[in-house]
Design a protein that fits this description.
The complex is a heterodimer. Chain A is α+β, with helices and mostly antiparallel strands. Chain A has four helices and two strands; from the N terminus they run αααββα. The termini of chain A are far apart. By secondary structure, chain B is α/β, with parallel strands linked by helices. Chain B has a single domain, classed as P-loop containing nucleotide triphosphate hydrolases (Rossmann fold), CATH 3.40.50. Helices cover 40% and strands 16% of the residues of chain B. Chain B is built from twelve helices and eight strands. Chain B has an eight-stranded mixed beta sheet with strand order 3-4-2-5-1-6-7-8, with helices on both faces. In chain B, helix 7 links the parallel strand 6 and strand 7. The radius of gyration of chain B is 19 Å and the shape is globular. Chain B starts with a strand and ends with a helix. Classes of the chains: A alpha+beta, B alpha/beta. Chains A and B meet through helix 2 of A and helix 7 and helix 9 of B.
């Protein structure tokens, strides 16, 4: 939620930047995964799944998320609809 | 009675570990407990000056561990509180003079002498840190509401979990309520949300902490100091008391200022 001040100045207050930056950094510190390794993991997961079922690669979202002190890998992988597959 | 051994650590240096150890020790001793502090920063002795005991040192922790003196001889008695002691760090040795098992043995010996052992950990995550946590029953992680300090605190919490030291508790030190109000400092809620461990105290920024350190008189001895009150509250929470957190937020609010100006408060 942005404050009145944020809206009139168009600038984000620094506490919010601090928190958002830390959220990202901590999730990678805790799992010891770099952005590049995440992309490699994403490609591998997609390659395996695509061998069995047709997925829509543009809609794929695979992210690390924090849940208290635990991390989880959350994947949202939309499938190509059968209709489109038949026509295409 | 057997003492509880508590280590205070932070990862990052300069966040207030030594000040916190001195103040919590003074606060526990003021409640009538027997307390012994250990300066775990071998080679960089500090806790003695913060407690105002630098002129009384004869023996240090390495002398006890290497058997050059008895435990009681290395326990310096505080000038103000009769049951508060300090075992100083060695100044001329390095951290390899002490091993984690030495610390466990020292801790076990102290359990029969006092009610609380507080260990001041050095910064970092290496040998000195490992020594400091080896004997601990409980670990308090201290941090400031700043990105680098919070990141290092998270790293230390991860290491403590890996060592199966149980979940540590958090002290948030040097919170500036007016900066939090202006959204230019992480709030206690923000830091707790990021680190996700139990909060045991929030200490507001207070110039008198430096004044107290200059004099060698921990601020927890000053009844009127707000930071001193925060440290006394941490001590009571460690004893199992349910103490509400200080209301840090209303002091500078417009309404509070108006009330003060109009003499209503």
């Amino acid at each position: 939620m942005s404050s009145f001040f944020d809206r009139i100045t168009g600038r984000k207050r620094s506490a919010k930047s601090a928190k958002e930056r830390l959220q990202l950094v901590l999730v990678h510190d805790r799992t010891d995964m770099t952005q590049l390794e995440m992309e490699a993991l994403r490609d591998d997961i997609l390659a395996v799944i695509s061998r069995h079922i047709d997925v829509d690669p543009d809609g794929v979202r695979i992210d690390l998320e924090r849940d208290g002190r635990e991390q989880r890998l959350v994947a949202d992988i939309p499938l190509r609809s059968m209709a489109r597959r038949r026509s295409g | 009675m057997s003492a509880k051994i508590v280590t205070i650590t932070s990862g990052k240096g300069g966040v207030g570990k030594t000040t916190a150890v001195a103040n919590i020790a003074v606060a526990l001793a003021s409640l009538g407990a027997r307390v012994c502090c250990i300066d775990g920063d071998i080679g960089l002795r500090n806790l003695d000056v913060v407690m105002g005991l630098e002129n009384r040192i004869v023996y240090d922790i390495v002398d006890v561990i290497e058997g050059r003196c008895r435990l009681r001889q290395a326990m310096i008695r505080d000038k103000r509180l009769p049951e508060l002691y300090l075992i100083p760090a060695a100044q001329t040795r390095d951290k390899s003079a002490v091993s984690p098992s030495d610390m466990v043995r020292l801790g076990d010996e102290l359990r029969n002498e006092v009610d609380w052992v507080l260990i001041d950990s050095p910064a970092g995550i290496e040998r000195g840190f490992r020594n400091s946590i080896a004997a601990a029953d409980q670990v308090l992680v201290i941090t400031n509401p700043e990105v680098s300090a919070v990141r290092d605190a998270d790293r230390v919490i991860g290491l403590l979990e890996a060592e199966e030291k149980g979940s540590p508790s958090l002290i948030l030190n040097r919170l500036n309520p007016s900066m939090v109000r202006n959204h230019d400092m992480l709030s206690a809620e923000d830091v707790l949300d990021l680190l996700a461990i139990r909060l045991i105290g929030v200490v507001p920024e207070d110039e008198n902490v430096i004044v107290g350190t200059n004099r060698g008189t921990p601020i927890a001895l000053e009844p009127k100091s707000i930071a001193g009150q925060a440290f006394r509250n941490i001590a009571r929470r460690m004893c199992g008391e349910d103490v509400p957190f200080l209301e840090l937020d209303n002091k500078g609010s417009l309404w509070a200022r108006i009330q003060r100006m109009t003499g209503r408060k």
